[in-house]
């Protein structure tokens, strides 16, 4: 059983213990403010630090590649236009002669 003297001692220390606990517990405002300050500091540090370039971010120079692609496109277009101009041999009349002209 608890002695009356111990009980009275505990009751007298309760307000002091409550104040100490309140002081030691961080309030939500202070915690939120500290977290926001840490984020700002981290953001500033990230801005001053250069980021390594990823492979997909690197610039690749291919000299003449664009020209080659244009030439390939032109080559593909030329046979298509030639086929459109020339009718197939089986669709022409039997007695007609065929003349190719290039200007």
**Helix proportion of residues, in percent?**
55-70%
Largest sheet: none
Question: Beta fraction of the residues?
Answer: under 5%
The value of Rg in angstroms is 44 Å
Give the structural class: mainly alpha
Series of H and E elements: HHH
Mean pLDDT, rounded to whole units?
76
Specify the overall morphology: rod-shaped
How many helical elements? Answer: 3
Oligomer: single chain
Distance between the termini: 121 Å
Poorly predicted runs are none
Number of strand segments? 0
Describe the protein's architecture and organization.
By secondary structure, the protein is mostly helical. About 60% of the residues lie in helices and about 0% in strands. It contains 3 helices and no strands. The protein has helices at about 5-25, 30-50, 65-85. The protein is rod-shaped. The termini are far apart. The relative contact order is 0.04.
Could you give a quick summary of the protein structure above?
The chain is mainly α and 103 residues long. The protein contains three helices and no strands.
Please name the defining characteristics of this protein.
103 residues; mainly alpha; 3 helices
List the helices and strands and how they pair.
Blueprint: H1 4-24, H2 28-48, H3 65-85
């Amino acid at each position: 059983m608890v002695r009356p003297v111990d009980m009275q001692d505990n009751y007298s220390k309760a307000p002091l213990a409550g104040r100490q606990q309140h002081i030691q517990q961080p309030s939500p405002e202070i915690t939120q403010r500290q977290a926001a300050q840490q984020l700002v500091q981290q953001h500033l540090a990230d801005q001053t630090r250069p980021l390594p370039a990823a492979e997909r971010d690197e610039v690749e120079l291919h000299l003449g590649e664009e020209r080659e692609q244009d030439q390939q496109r032109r080559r593909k277009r030329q046979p298509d236009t030639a086929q459109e101009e020339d009718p197939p041999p089986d669709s022409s009349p039997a007695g007609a002669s065929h003349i190719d002209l290039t200007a």
